[in-house]
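Second opinion, please. Pick holes in both lines of this record:
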Amino acid sequence: MVRSVRLGLIMYSLLIGYGILLMAQAQTLLPPKGAAASSDKLTYHGYTLEQLRAIKPGSSNPYLSLLPPGVTPDMAYWMARMQAEARAKGAVQTSGPGVPMVEESEPNNTPATANPISDFGNGPGLTPQTNVNGSFPAPPEPTPAGPFPEDDGAIPLASDPGLNAGQLVRITAQIGDGPHGSSGSGSGDFDFYVISGVTAGQVITANINTQPPGVFPPPFDSFLGLWDSQGNLLTFNDDQRPSDSFFLDSFIQFTVPQDGDYYISVGSFRSSIPRDPFDSSSGEGIGTEGEYELILGLAAYDIDFFSLALNAGDVLNVNGLGAISHVSLFDPAGVELITSGSDITVILPEEAPFRGGGNPALVYLVSQPGMYAVRVTSFQSGDYIAELRTARPPLETAEIGTKQILFIDFDGATIDPSDFVGGPPDQRILSPLSSFLGNWGLQPDAENAVIDAILDVSVENLQRDIAEMGFNPQFDIEILNSRDHEDPFGQPNVSRVIVGGTIAESGIETIGIAQSIDVGNFATAESGLVLLDVLSGTNGESASVNTFPIAASASIIDFIGIAVGNIVAHEAGHFFGNFHTNQFNASENIMDQGGNPAGTFGVGEDGTFGTEDDVDVDFGLDDYVPNEGLVGIEDTLNVISFGLTSMPNDLTSASH
């Protein structure tokens, strides 16, 4: 129980106070108790892409950024901008002639009964593109359930709508009528519903509607969570109902990993979940309140599976058209690798050869060969087309000896912020690493030692660990730096991470940012930033190296090396293909989302650097962070291992 309560506390800090949680960064500031929510999410409703591109957003894109604690992402802008960009991309996409078409046929609702897609892949006799044509039948009519008495604001108090497999139930209820709403204690009202006897592999859906006809914005801005019986928050959603881009209704689709009882919670913007899911009074204030209709389903909608053989290093793209609401990929053992209900291709660079267009789309690099399964789902009836595309990382077909080069620049640089956040071109000069030594209490003669420490951690994360543990024997990268090498940026296959500069100098309110998430490393000349003003802050900033105690056996130079080196690897990890992972689960990962500097820095439970409980934060297997719209498991190490491939000079052996 202690773990679940702690998780609730941490996740509450993650969730509370956001504008839009889809793709949002973690934030630890809580609103005043009883504070009402605003409708500032909706500022950009109805704007065209041209209008959005002309606006300077209130924050950098949280998909690509490690935002400082206390900075609220401008998710209203980025949600509107990314959706508009995706639709513009889709408007000019064409399938081209001769794309093979596979017709869906029932039964195909399990991986074992999947429709086979033959001759698909990269290689002689195979085709790298196939379209699947299918349809979803009408779902069952929802059965009315309730009304249910208050208090039902916690797991032990959850109402039971009597949902069975193959059914939908419709619940009409209200947030605000419980004992902790605005007319009660004021700690915040929540409604919990139990779904009993769920079997592993079944899909739970929760679809909420709060939109009165002709009323915009709605009075109640919903938030959904899904919990297991131990109080672990498995997934959550704020504003991502499929095909509902600018509205505030929430939607969850989740494949259950094991048998048991599960719980759906209904909360609101600024009062999303209780701190303790076993205590209905543990909210942190009033958010929006109002009536809602909730449709819960258990294995209620049609599911179609398609099997296909993939090789290690294949990058698969699935784009769902028509009635498709979510696209998924399962590995040969039936493990859910990724589910997407939005178009994630818009965050990829232009060089990536994948399809989106504002539809549910996924891109995933597989690290082992085998028979995989694509799943498409919907919450409505209708026809669909699933576009399947696959490609290989381009460096594996480059000239012999070609490899990815990463240049780490400590000397300051001139950048164009529009490369990272859009907007009109600009020129900004970033100060060098040496400008920040004094903030850490160091003299100028410590610069070489600091650079050595940062390089050692960066090389460990991005080269040594991946060469040793990655599945690709042809992985290769060369890491250069501004102290020891001439600046090669601008040459082919050279990406860089600039270490230095401030928020004011860059015009980007972030700690770190990358240009793209490039699954497969199709754009081999990109940039990332690691700004140092927050990391060297002297005013108690939670993400400053100076804020953490340091054991007598360690030095601040060691700590700077780990803190900055891990963030260098994080930003390079983005443009080498990785999305954010969950920063608050039990697995620390270089790609963990921001908001948990203790985890990023690996200081362990005691919060002190240099003690026995310190954690070596690495790339590896981890869960996608839920608030970026993805569910599944990301292999952040092998994404880089295969993306940074090279044909060795000696073709009989691999070069590391």
